[in-house]
Structure formats: structure tokens, C-alpha cells
Design brief:
The chain is an alpha+beta fold and about 425 residues long. Helices cover about 50% and strands about 20% of the residues. It has twelve helices and twelve strands. Helix 6 (about 255-260) packs across helix 7 (about 265-300), helix 8 crosses helix 9 (about 325-360) and helix 9 crosses helix 12 (about 395-415). The longest helix is centred in the C-terminal third of the chain and has 35 residues, at about 265-300.
């Protein structure tokens, strides 16, 4: 498509759905005007013997600085023409424009090609008529009791064990000294709760044979060795000394325990609150699964292409390896995360498009109402909550959350949720 935009000519090509290439032609008269402006500006900046600043004749500046003037002229002409072309063609790049070709001779029109990526255009031809099964929401008594037990463990009193070998659940303080390799003879201290996977099985088994104050030499298979060689791992000789063993004493499971946990009249009220919390979380998880299943069907009916640059930026934000991280390992992590990143971006694009089509963006009143809810729940003033959300950059996330809720309520109304 060719358009006449002011005094520039623009041809737009789409090599791919998310790529654009502009061929922009700038008339020779405009190039010459820019060159004259560039020359006048240069005359105010340079000193030439025999002339006052700003009074250097143009022909002398051209003779001494002709290459500089031409380079700056071309750059200014291209920059201004590119900005004007984007505005006239209503294009919004998501990458910096890359100049692919420049065709210019003094006194002639300047033509250049510039390519960039744009956000994909999302065409949604079918949004409803799908069937989605909502997962059953069920909280068992066993789940409630597991939470109760975790609360008891958090309030346990740890007593030193003077005699006997450690048991599962004991907190042991140990010193482990490699007897081979570069770290041989260099002891390191650890605190381990036995039976919770804090140490490799061979180390835990060795610890369980030692009383407080005892030490021994063992052949163990390290986690690194297991990763390198498979399940059997690599054998290593170590010395293990058990310095201290502590065993938890759990509080009695009664009304006094419930009162110590929070504002509860007794154990049954605590259990009921836990049951309610677990039910709410199960309902939230069921809703997340409904949205996931519904979006899968929408994307299958309405394929969306995501530019590679968007995927890479998403992965950059998701994975922030520390200094000195292994590049090969980072590359592996990116490849593992790539499918999820692509799916997340497709979902975001669909939600944004539906919100635009149906005017479902969060309103100021809805955001304010949500802030009021948060403030009431946390016992704070709305002003405090709003200030905190603004400082942490979470206010935009709150707006997006409300928008998504409205979008999915709309999408669910178009399908059957069983």
C-alpha cells in the first residue's frame, strides 16, 4: 500500500503477520532544507581561522566538514521521516527500527527501508459455544487435619536429646567433612530435620546411626553424583559428627492450642476456619482451571502468532540469572520455559483484545472498590493501601486483575460451564 504523507512517500509491506517493512522516500527539496539547517547549526559550533563564530561561509564549511554534514543530514532526515511515517500509518513498533537499505545521491530523493516488529493483530472469530467441565471442589477431613498438624509443628518446643540415635522429625546439628577431593578436610556445619528431604538419603541414614557427640566415616552418594551418574550417584567418603539432636514436643490438640493460634473459641472453630480457607482456595483453583481450559479452546479456534521478540522479553523478565550463571544452563531453562511463555502471551493478547472489543477494562470506580475491600480485610485505610500499591507498582496489576475477571465472566457467559 502506497500513501502520500505530507511530502514523504511511504510503502508498507508485511513480510510476516507481526513484521512490517517501510520503504520511505523523502523528496530532494526536504533533504536540501535539512542539509542547510545542519550547516547553519554547525556554523554556530565550529571555529575556522579568519572567521567569527557563526559567520563561516557555507562553501567553506562544506569543503571542510562536508562528510559530517551529509552524515548528520541523512540521519536527521531518516529519523524525522520514520517518526512521521509511523504516525501517518498508525503503526506501533515493539522493536527498534532496523534500517536495511539507504539509497541517496546528492541532489536526489532519499529512499530507505526500515523493518520492525509490531504487536500481533488478534482476530477473534469464535469466542463462545465451548464446553468446559469445572473441577469438583471437595475438602477432606484429612486435608483439614494436615493443616492442624502443621500449626502444631510450628508451635513445637524443641528439647535436646541426650541419649539415643536421632529419629525422623528430629532437628540435628551436624558437621560433615569430605575426606576426598578438593574440599577434603574442610568441615561444614548443617542443621537438618530428618525425614524431610533436607539431605540425600545416604547422609540421613548415616546420621541416624550416631548418638549426640559421636562421629563416624561413611561412604555416601552425593546429589551431584546422582545427577551426573543417574540414580546410583557417585560414592564419596565423608566424616559425619552429630553435635546436637533436638526433638519436637507438640502442643496438646485441645481448645487451648486453638486459642493460642488465633482468635478462636476452641478446636472446632479452628477446624471450621481451616475448612473454609481450604474451600475458598479449592474454588479459586477450580476457577483457574476453568479459565485455562476455556482459553485453550479459544486459542485453538483462534490461532494467535506471538513475535519472537515478545517471547524473549517475557523470558528475560521471568528468568533473571545471577552473575556468573552457567550460560548453557540458562539457555536450557529458557527452552524449558518457552512453551509456557508463548501460551501466557497468547492468553494476554486475547484478554486484551476482548477487553477492547467489549469495553471491559477496569474502571476507576472498580479499582477504588477493590482497594476498599483490601483495606477492610487488612485493617488499613484505603489511602495506605493505594499508596503501597503505587509504590510497589502493583496498582496496574490490580487493574489488570479486575479486567481479566470481567473478560472471563463475559467469555464464560458465551459457553457452557458444567
Amino acid at each position: 500500500m502506497a500513501t502520500q504523507a505530507s511530502d514523504i512517500k511511504v510503502v508498507v509491506e508485511a513480510p510476516r503477520p507481526t513484521a512490517r517493512r517501510l520503504t520511505i522516500t523523502v523528496p530532494a527539496e526536504r533533504v536540501e532544507r535539512t542539509r542547510q539547517e545542519t550547516t547553519r547549526r554547525l556554523a554556530q559550533q565550529v571555529r575556522v581561522r579568519g572567521f567569527r563564530r557563526g559567520k563561516v561561509p557555507a562553501q567553506i564549511l562544506e569543503r571542510q566538514y562536508g562528510a559530517v554534514i551529509q552524515q548528520e543530514t541523512i540521519e536527521r532526515v531518516m529519523r524525522d521521516a520514520y517518526r512521521e511515517a509511523l504516525e501517518r500509518e498508525d503503526l506501533h513498533p515493539i522493536t527498534q527500527g532496523e534500517v536495511e537499505k539507504v539509497d541517496y545521491e546528492p541532489g536526489a530523493d532519499l529512499t530507505f527501508d526500515i523493518a520492525f516488529e509490531v504487536q500481533p493483530e488478534v482476530h477473534l472469530e469464535r469466542l463462545g459455544g465451548f464446553k468446559v467441565e469445572r473441577p469438583a471442589v471437595e475438602v477432606t477431613e484429612g486435608e483439614v487435619e494436615r493443616v492442624v498438624e502443621r500449626l502444631r509443628e510450628q508451635q513445637a518446643v524443641w528439647h535436646p536429646v541426650e541419649d539415643g540415635t536421632p529419629l525422623a522429625g528430629d532437628l540435628v546439628t551436624v558437621e560433615i567433612t569430605p575426606l576426598e577431593g578438593e574440599a577434603a578436610g574442610q568441615p561444614r556445619g548443617y542443621q537438618i530435620v530428618l525425614g524431610e528431604g533436607h539431605a540425600v538419603p545416604d547422609v540421613e541414614d548415616a546420621i541416624r546411626t550416631l548418638r549426640p557427640g559421636e562421629e563416624g566415616e561413611f561412604t555416601v552418594r552425593t546429589a551431584e553424583g546422582a545427577e551426573a551418574e543417574g540414580a546410583s550417584g557417585a560414592a564419596q567418603r565423608v566424616r559425619i559428627k552429630v553435635r546436637e539432636v533436638r526433638r519436637p514436643e507438640l502442643p496438646a490438640l485441645d481448645d487451648e492450642f486453638a486459642k493460642s493460634v488465633g482468635d478462636f473459641s476452641g478446636l472446632e472453630e479452628l477446624r471450621e476456619r481451616i475448612r473454609q480457607d481450604l474451600t475458598r482456595e479449592a474454588e479459586r483453583e477450580a476457577e483457574r482451571e476453568v479459565r485455562h481450559r476455556l482459553m485453550e479452546q479459544i486459542l485453538e479456534a483462534n490461532p494467535v502468532d506471538v513475535p519472537e521478540v515478545m517471547v524473549n522479553r517475557y523470558l528475560d523478565d521471568l528468568l533473571r540469572p545471577g552473575r556468573g550463571a552457567d550460560p548453557e544452563r540458562v539457555a536450557q531453562m529458557r527452552e524449558i520455559a518457552r512453551p509456557g511463555a508463548e501460551q501466557a502471551l497468547k492468553r494476554m493478547l486475547v484478554v486484551a483484545r476482548v477487553a477492547e472489543m467489549e469495553s471491559l477494562h477496569a474502571t476507576e470506580e472498580e479499582v477504588e472498590g477493590r482497594i476498599q475491600e483490601i483495606a477492610s480485610r487488612q485493617g488499613r485505610s484505603p489511602e495506605e493501601v493505594r499508596t503501597r500499591l503505587q509504590k510497589t507498582g502493583q496498582l496496574a496489576a490490580l487493574e489488570q486483575e479486575i479486567t481479566e475477571e470481567k473478560v472471563f465472566e463475559y467469555l464464560k457467559s458465551l459457553s457452557t460451564i458444567e
